[in-house]
Amino acid sequence: MVDGQVVESIPKTDSGLRVIDLDDSTVAALLAWRLSQEQEREMAAEAWRKSGRAFTMEDGRALSPDYVYRLSWKMQVKAKVPQIAFHSLGHEHASQVLEPDVPIGAVSKRLGHASIGITSDLYSHLIGDASREAAAKTSSLVPRTPRAQQVHNSEASSETTKAPAPLR
Prior knowledge:
This protein folds into 2 domains: 22-63, no CATH class; 65-143, no CATH class. 54% of the residues lie in helices and 0% in strands. α4 (104-111) crosses α5 (116-122). By secondary structure, the chain is mainly α. It has helices spanning 24-44, 65-79, 89-97, 104-111, 116-122, 124-139, 146-159. It has 7 helices and no strands.
């Protein structure tokens, strides 16, 4: 909003225009919402205002940013979840999905960043945690039994005087 007026513009970069994958339950919820909105449109008849929005008032009018903000805040209180400012939701989402088993390229595209470097720069503190978790996960794959150490030691001592076998 600028001077109390809603201002719409195109995204800053081409990567801002993107398709975002959704899980099945979210798609189902959006389809249910669409059916509900179709009923509202039929009930409103000629009073319906075509806005092209997925979320509207009962008569099709676009939701005001202030209304969306207040509604979001009320829903967070009612759900008893940590209250997160609306503009911080993207950062919260990034911190939830940046895990060792999620490729940074996928996260970067989901967030609409123009490059992986931007995501890495913005969330390096989280990627560091993910890197440590990945290291721990990798380490857990290596056997740590005394028998494995004994086998290693006996092989190492018998190999010290032999030349390594050529690679094929």
